[in-house]
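Exam revision sheet. Question 4 asks you to relate a sequence to its structure. Input first:
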Amino acid sequence: MAIKFTLLGGLIYLAMTCYLAAAVLLAARRKGLGQGVYFLGFVVMIAAFVVRWSEVEHAPLQNMFEVFLCLGMLIYPISWFCRRFLRVGGEAADAGFIGVLVLAPAGFVFSASPEKLPPALQSPLFVPHVAAYMLSYIILAKAAVQAIAVLVGRRQSDVELVSYEQGAYRIAKLGFPLLTIGLVLGAWWAKLAWGDFWSWDPKELWSLVSWLVFLGYFHVRHMFGTKYPRLNAALVTAGLAAILMTLFVVNLARIFAGLHSYA
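Answer key, structure tokens:
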């Protein structure tokens, strides 16, 4: 564990504190104050993202530290959007579970040493490709939290919100097109950079596995609807597991070294 005694590190720890406090307040039904503290954490994360951008002089989406920094910034607007437009709650879990967990690797695990953007990433497709994946990952993580609630037998008590099974479905429908865009942009970029749309690189392979798991979920959901809610929830959770495999194991385990090793 490496604590970061820097401005950027301080902002990350402050945001984590805000997210954790917001989760406690929201769980205690202090909705107004909890939402305010949650929003404050988001503002702090915007500041952290801007500081990092200034340090590296490019969009901070290059390495694992920057990926988790970005994910930690995205969780609040996703929470807000889902409640406002999809009638899906879960802000306490979003802040205290997803928000804190995705910031922990940035705060305590990965190095924050600034790095220049390597030639392989100096492409107009860099930002849209990675941004599509980051948005899809954080959205589908929220869908998986809703699915886990189904698996453990929880029932939605707020009459203004949809059920957890329906919530997972609505959120997955939001995240899956972005996952698809990330995959397509990656193939296009691969063609431009390496001369082929597909190279069976480990990162490509596990990105495809993630996509296929969610495709299977939508197929099952279309065929059977809500008849098998635990099966639906298990497939969404499996999709998140495949994403975690793509994000963590493929990036970090040397046995998976491939064309994406620079990430």
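Marking note for examiners. Residues 164-194 form the longest helix (31 residues).
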